[in-house]
Amino acid sequence: MHLLYQPMNTIQATTYPVHFSDKAYQELNLYLKENTYSSIFILVDDNTFECCYPKFIQRLETDLKIELIQIDPGEIHKNLDTCLGVWNVMTELGADRKSLLITLGGGVITDLGGFVASTFKRGIDFINIPTTLLSMVDASVGGKTGVDLGVLKNQIGVFANPQMVIVDPEYLHTLDPREIRSGTAEIIKYGMTHDIRLFNQIKDNTELNIVDLIHRSVEIKNEVVTEDPKEKGLRKVLNWGHTIGHAVESYFLDAEHKENLTHGEAIAIGMVCEAYLSSRILNFPEEKIAEIKNAIVNIYGKIEILPEDINPIMALLIHDKKNEAGIVKFVLLNDYEDFELSCEASEELIRESINFYIN
């Protein structure tokens, strides 16, 4: 996939802007001039410290004291222990209620950093600078912050909006192709639920205008979140592929004999399974299930799930935070761009759907 760029207009969310490319740094520096912060804390992991921080710090214009906090990379560190470490370091370095936290990293950094900021001294301001495709199109926008509880995804968190989001596609050059593919799964999700052109472009093209796809994805997410910020209704659509996908991701994270999956790889499997459920429950067209499965396998390869993996995956589904009264809830499709929220499926059908991916 080649990364082609063009300038993109700012997207205005309810309480904050999402700025793109070079203009974003101008807006950030102007914002720092116009607001009276006491200090700036920048949260990075080992990877973004090495690959992204040098570029970012050159673009930052401020006389404020800057402190850098570095954590270990990876979903395995997205937990309360890491938060405790960050809170302690911030306290030792003199952070106060007028400090600003800038998150520079992927979904783990933006989710965890937003949670750290929104709970430190009952909440300090934060700015998200996503550096992966996944965090650009999903994690950094929408006001969800949080961490995992053991292997259970995003069980602890709060809704809190950043002051702004800066999307600079130049950071994508620091990623390996697997991470680009991981973020692509969230764009495919927006395509199937809201704008099928996104899915078609990814499915049919090797040369993509990736910035165009990012901008459209953020637009879609922002429209959904603006209408339903706390996930009482419409925002549930953003969970397409995630109910089974999160259970698969958690299982691979916890099973010692399995290599961890990226978030996007797991969500891609979830979309195949949930397309199957859509066909059995809502008559989603058979030829489109085949199209989805073929596209996913072409992009992500066939990930080995064995029959004996199904029981532990089913056990993890029970803990999905979208469940109501112990019943697993799904977003399912009548057709592309035509979805139903809070659908129920029998255990037998869910097992069938995983077998459909396996076979």
Topology summary:
Blueprint: E1 2-3, E2 11-12, E3 17-20, H1 21-34, E4 39-45, H2 46-51, H3 53-59, E5 65-71, H4 80-92, E6 99-105, H5 107-119, E7 125-130, H6 133-139, E8 147-149, E9 152-156, E10 165-167, H7 177-193, H8 196-204, E11 207-208, H9 210-227, H10 242-254, H11 263-282, H12 286-300, H13 310-317, E12 329-335, E13 338-344, H14 347-358
Parallel strand pairs: 1-11, 3-10, 4-5, 4-6, 6-7
Antiparallel strand pairs: 2-3, 8-9, 12-13
Helix pairs in contact: 5-6, 6-7, 6-9, 7-8, 7-9, 7-11, 10-11, 10-13, 11-12, 11-14
Domain 3-dehydroquinate synthase C-terminal: 183-323
Cofactor: NAD(+); Co(2+); Zn(2+)
InterPro entries: Dehydroquinate_synthase, DHQ_synth_AroB, DHQ_synth_fam, DHQS/DOIS_N, DHQS_C
Could you characterize the architecture of this molecule?
Its cofactor is NAD(+); Co(2+); Zn(2+). Residues 69-181 form the 3-dehydroquinate synthase N-terminal domain. Its EC number is 4.2.3.4. The protein has 359 residues and is α/β, with parallel strands linked by helices. The protein has 2 domains: 2-177, Rossmann fold; 181-358, Up-down Bundle (Dehydroquinate synthase-like, alpha domain), CATH 1.20.1090. Helices cover 48% and strands 17% of the residues. Strand 6 (99-105), helix 5 (107-119) and strand 7 (125-130) form a beta-alpha-beta unit. Helix 6 runs parallel beside helix 7 (177-193) and helix 11 (263-282) packs antiparallel against helix 12 (286-300). The chain starts with a strand and ends with a helix. The model has no long low-confidence stretch (mean pLDDT 94).
